Amino acid sequence: MSTHDRLSRWVAIGAIALMSAASGAALAQTHYGFGKPATQDQIAGWDIDASPDGSGLPPGSGTVEQGKALYTQLCLACHGENGKGASAAALVGGEGTLATPKPVRTIGSFWPYASTLFDYINRAMPWDKPQSLKPDEVYALTAMLLNANKLVPDDAVMNAQTLPKVRMPNLQSFKAAKNKENMVPGVRCMKGC
């Protein structure tokens, strides 16, 4: 390659860099008029997480029987009879499969906290109308699904006090490492936990 060709190439690269910087600066100064700052009410509407200790759970309650009726109406089409799965994932079953080549990750076999179930239903279900359920409906569906996974009795009532007391079978798999040697952020403890 001749000196002239190399010089031409560097000039072209420099011109492209300058144009990119100029257009980036112009974009940074451009205001498109989209969006507006969120209000405190809007933020509160999305601040709906339920923690394992029960903080964040709203007032209300629901029974297994109430949950069965709601499940039939809202969930059966996707999650199948008794949560065994259909077009959407199974919610029930999977016990003893996590260490197999084909683990079945369900509420009863995999999830570490019952409050996670409440949180997920409250936040994302039904899929076509997320956040449309009232707290009593979410508690009822949570009670029904925990019962279907044999984690609470038929007469269980779920609310902000009872739900955090439900002990999930796979909780131990999610415990954080207890010694510094095994503490790696974002990595589940594999030994000596």
Could you characterize what this model shows?
The chain starts with a helix and ends in a 34-residue tail after the last strand. The protein is mainly alpha-helical and 193 residues long. The protein has six helices and two strands.
How would you write the strand order of the largest sheet? 1-2
Q: Can you give the helix content as a percent range?
A: 25-40%
Strand-residue fraction? under 5%
- State the major sheet: 2 strands, antiparallel
Tally the beta strands: 2
CA-atom Rg in angstroms: 26 Å
Low confidence ranges: none
- Looking at the overall shape, the CATH architecture of the domain at 49-174 is Orthogonal Bundle
CATH topology (fold) name of the domain at 49-174: Cytochrome Bc1 Complex, Chain D, domain 2
Chain-averaged pLDDT: 84
Structural class: mainly alpha
CATH superfamily of the domain at 49-174: Cytochrome c-like domain
Multimeric status of the protein: single chain
Number of helices: 6
